[in-house]
């Protein structure tokens, strides 16, 4: 059953000629249920100070904890699923024109700022939501948020100018966090892909240059990335997999000759297989079988 949808109007949230506002809220667990959801006439940045639970955005639940940041589009259908007794948040409400012409100059490699385009469709962008607009704050971004909050409370004659500049800096900072997050996930995705290739094709001749070209990186970059993430090289991981399989076959297939197992596991040199297996298990394959009573 679809939740009841309420549209939150901008009237009363913004000062005259300045489409920006900061509001601190404490929400109790009972304040929100899955049968009610909200849209709004403005963009907002949610910064979670206390508590935990989930933020529901367009039907998808995202974990939230202190330091979580959510950039919300007006057409996003949202609610909270509060799991602690309460949560404390800051809602930074704004229209894109608060930073004026500066917005046109803001770009990054992953289209973070497309959320402010008139043609942006949250429903079509849901697969990018977690990477781009659901983030964990850093000490640097938290300190900047606190500075914006203090400046907003001062309400000095030049506070609006300060807020515009600091808020633009905050958006740039958050966009850089999103880029870092995407690149980190891409690296992990590459490592997982290499591991899956090793798992499926360890018996085959392994062409590292061809694998790198399939992924779209250089061979040297692939090697550096994989070692940085796993602590060992691709070829070391491949050798380990082949030796693990040889160990299994030596145990489970006593009818197979050692040379058969050698070639079946991707080795093409029997003497190298003997040396590698001894380094792996402490004994050569023949002695290994004798110890198991399988000779």
Number of domains: 2
Oligomer: single chain
In which range does the helix fraction lie? 40-55%
CATH superfamily of the largest domain: Regulatory protein AraC
Instruction: Name the CATH architecture of the largest domain.
Output: Sandwich
Structural class: alpha+beta
Count of helical stretches = 9
Rg computed from alpha carbons, rounded to a whole number of angstroms: 28 Å
Percent in strands = 15-25%
**What is the N-to-C succession of helices and strands?**
EEEEEEEEEHEHHHHHHHH
Strand order of the largest sheet: 2-9-4-7-10
Shape: elongated
User: What value does the average pLDDT take?
Assistant: 90
Ranges where pLDDT stays below 50 over 5 or more residues in a row are none
CATH fold field value of the largest domain: Jelly Rolls
End-to-end C-alpha gap: 66 Å
Q: What does this protein look like?
A:
The protein has two domains: 4-184, Jelly Rolls (Sandwich), CATH 2.60.120; 207-295, Homeodomain-like (Arc Repressor Mutant, subunit A, Orthogonal Bundle). The protein has nine helices and ten strands. It has helices at residues 126-133, 139-154, 159-201, 208-215, 219-230, 234-252, 258-264, 270-281, 285-292; strands at 4-8, 20-28, 36-40, 43-50, 53-57, 60-64, 68-72, 78-82, 86-94, 134-136. β5 and β6 (60-64) form a beta hairpin. The model has no long low-confidence stretch (mean pLDDT 90).
């Amino acid at each position: 059953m679809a939740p009841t949808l309420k549209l939150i109007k901008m009237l009363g949230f913004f000062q005259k000629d300045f489409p920006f506002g900061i509001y601190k809220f404490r929400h109790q667990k009972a304040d929100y249920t899955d049968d009610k959801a909200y849209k709004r006439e403005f963009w907002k940045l949610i910064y979670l100070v206390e508590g935990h639970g989930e933020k529901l955005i367009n039907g998808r639940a995202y974990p939230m904890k202190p330091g979580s940041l959510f950039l919300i589009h007006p057409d996003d259908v949202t609610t909270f699923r509060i799991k602690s007794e309460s949560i404390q948040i800051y809602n930074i409400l704004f229209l894109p024109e608060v930073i004026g012409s500066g917005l046109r100059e803001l770009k990054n490699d992953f289209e973070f700022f497309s959320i402010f385009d008139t043609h942006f469709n949250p429903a079509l962008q849901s697969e990018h939501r977690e990477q781009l607009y659901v983030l964990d704050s850093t000490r640097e971004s938290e300190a900047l948020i606190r500075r914006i909050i203090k400046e907003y409370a001062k309400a000095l004659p030049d506070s609006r100018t300060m807020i515009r500049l600091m808020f633009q800096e905050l958006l740039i900072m958050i966009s850089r966090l999103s880029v870092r997050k995407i690149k980190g996930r891409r690296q992990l995705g590459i490592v997982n892909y290499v591991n899956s290739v090793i798992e499926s094709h360890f018996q085959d001749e392994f062409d590292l240059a061809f694998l790198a070209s399939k992924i779209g990186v250089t061979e040297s970059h692939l090697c550096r990335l994989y070692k940085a993430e796993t602590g060992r090289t691709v070829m070391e991981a491949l050798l380990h997999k082949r030796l693990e399989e040889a160990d299994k076959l030596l145990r489970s297939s006593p009818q197979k000759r050692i040379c058969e197992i050698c070639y079946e596991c991707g080795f093409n040199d029997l003497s190298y297989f003997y040396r590698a297996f001894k380094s792996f298990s402490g004994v050569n394959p023949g002695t290994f079988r004798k110890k198991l009573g399988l000779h």
